[in-house]
Design goal:
The chain is α/β, with parallel strands linked by helices and 480 residues long. It folds into four domains: 148 residues, Rossmann fold, CATH 3.40.50.2300; 170 residues, Rossmann fold (3-Layer(aba) Sandwich); 72 residues, Helicase, Ruva Protein, domain 3 (Orthogonal Bundle); 64 residues, Arc Repressor Mutant, subunit A (Orthogonal Bundle), CATH 1.10.10. It is built from 20 helices and 16 strands. The strands form five sheets. A five-stranded parallel beta sheet has the order 2-1-3-4-5, with helices on both faces. Strands 7-10-13-6-14 form a five-stranded parallel beta sheet. Strands 8-9 form a two-stranded antiparallel sheet. Helix 6 crosses helix 7. The radius of gyration is 24 Å and the shape is globular.
Length: 480
């Protein structure tokens, strides 16, 4: 499944936009299906499990979704709906998710928007308003797909921070090597765009770049997608079909979410990495792949190896060259550059919004749990709500997720007494305090690991490249 914008298709076979409706109330599903069928090809599901089963069967994944939060087996809680919102972009990264739910508490709305939803409509809904919002999101989607091919290639490496400069240099350095590259990083930080750079900067740039998400298919379907199949090799295989290893030719193949690859397929992937050989399903003669493999993951594969969920030999084959894509919170002031980039791309008409100084400070202090993807969604919503206006901190914070409980903080608690006393002293500088604590932990880790950077980075829970860039900012000399 390639998610290249130039190959994206938002229409079903009847030339109507495809819409996924997820709700466990059969009366609502029947009514909305009848109401919307004149404008959309409606697919329905009543649970997260049914959503997965449906999307694994469809050739064209809907680019619009209308999702209820209260789904079985816990229809009175929003958790299952949140799962669906999180999982839908795995099948189609461009999908526009609108929530239609009676569970419209502010925290639910904020969390749904942080996960990637673009709108929240409260039940019972006004039908003309619902149709208008669906049409608006369809128009937005078409405009974004038209711009995405040229615009998004700059997003992941746009910035001036030490972390992104290091990533940029390593990406160019690794691009034209024949070896596999493992791209690590949190969800939403731009791993696929880095894979595109690796391909575009290489001598393979004229050959195909294909991408497949290992979490989006069942084991059987994923094997057929990767390796291809012979005619009659399984029910429904009416014709022979080439797999991604074959279709990539001498180009690049991105195996996204490689940590989700089933153990049975890991052995077959290892064979491809070792000598290029693979077999189509239902065939007995070997074929050879010449594609360059790029793998991406938001998991710690070392931990997956330790727990037996990932093969150690496969990990070492993939981990020849590693790129760590830093989360947005580790990129200093890059969020402001990305904000400006997104403001211009996703303006809905007229001029984009601007932030006042207080709102800029709030943005710089925000942890961005959804990384670049979350920042882009925030910008899209602000541009839609406040075109051409000066945005203050209140409007900005309304689009952010403030889940204090998940951080173990009671919002009603008073400020820590020690911090309060320090803030009251003249000459307090937060950057200096944080720098001292960072230096203290880094030096302690280096001492415990006898100066070994790789071991110290693992102890600190960061990538070795990130540790090295932080050491460069410190007065402490880098150990040999």
């Amino acid at each position: 499944m390639s998610d290249n914008p130039e190959t994206a298709d938002i229409f079903a076979s009847d030339h109507k936009p495809a819409l996924l409706l997820v709700d466990d109330d059969p009366l609502i599903v029947e009514a909305l299906s009848l109401i919307l069928e004149d404008e959309f090809h409606v697919y329905t599901a009543d649970s997260e499990r049914q959503v997965k089963a449906l999307l694994q069967r469809l050739e064209i994944i809907p680019s619009l979704a209308l999702v209820d939060l209260g789904l079985p087996p816990f229809p009175h809680a929003p958790d299952e709906g949140f799962k669906v919102i999180e999982e839908l972009p795995v099948y189609n990264p461009d999908i526009k998710i609108l929530v239609l739910s009676g569970q419209d508490e502010k925290t639910n709305i904020q969390h749904a928007l942080t996960l990637g939803a673009v709108d929240f409509i409260t039940k019972p809904c006004d039908i003309p308003l619902l149709k208008a919002r669906l049409r608006h999101q369809l128009m937005m989607l078409q405009a974004e797909l038209a711009q995405k091919k040229d615009a998004t290639r700059d997003e992941s490496l746009l910035g001036e921070s030490m972390a992104i400069n290091t990533l940029h240099a390593l990406t160019r350095q690794f691009a034209d090597t024949p070896y596999p590259v493992l791209v690590e990083g949190e969800s939403g930080c731009g791993k696929e765009l880095i894979a595109h750079y690796l391909h575009d900067y290489s001598s393979r740039a004229a050959a195909p770049f294909l991408s497949i998400n290992c979490a989006a298919f069942s084991a059987e379907l994923l094997e057929a997608q990767l390796f291809g199949h012979a005619k009659g090799s399984f029910t429904g295989a009416s014709v022979a079909k080439a797999g991604f290893f074959e279709e990539a030719g001498e180009g690049s193949l991105l195996l996204d979410e490689i940590g989700e690859l089933p153990l049975g397929l890991q052995a077959k992937l290892l064979r491809v990495l070792e000598n290029g050989e693979y077999y189509r399903l239902g065939e007995t003669h070997a074929r050879v792949s010449f594609a360059r493999i790029i793998a991406a993951t938001n998991r710690d594969l070392r931990e997956e190896v330790r727990t037996g969920r990932f093969r150690q030999d496969l990990y070492h084959r993939l981990n020849v060259l590693t790129l760590h894509v830093p989360p947005l919170r580790e990129r200093d002031r890059d969020c402001l550059l990305l904000l400006d980039h997104f403001r211009k791309i996703y303006v809905t008409g007229g001029t984009p919004f601007t932030l006042d100084k207080e709102a800029e400070g709030c943005l710089l202090a925000y942890a961005f749990p959804g990384n670049i993807r979350e920042l882009k969604n925030i910008v899209i919503r602000l541009n839609a709500k406040y075109p051409g206006k000066l945005i203050g901190i209140d409007a900005l914070q309304a689009e952010m997720e403030r889940d204090y409980k998940s951080a173990g903080i009671d919002a009603g608690q008073s400020v820590d007494n020690t911090a309060r006393q320090e803030l009251l002293q003249r000459g307090f500088h937060l950057d200096e305090v944080l720098e001292k604590w960072e230096k203290r932990y880094i030096n302690a880790a280096l001492e415990l690991c006898n100066g070994n950077l790789s071991k110290a980075a693992r102890m600190l829970g960061i990538n070795r490249t990130t540790l090295y860039s932080r050491l460069q900012r410190m007065t402490t000399s880098v150990p040999e």
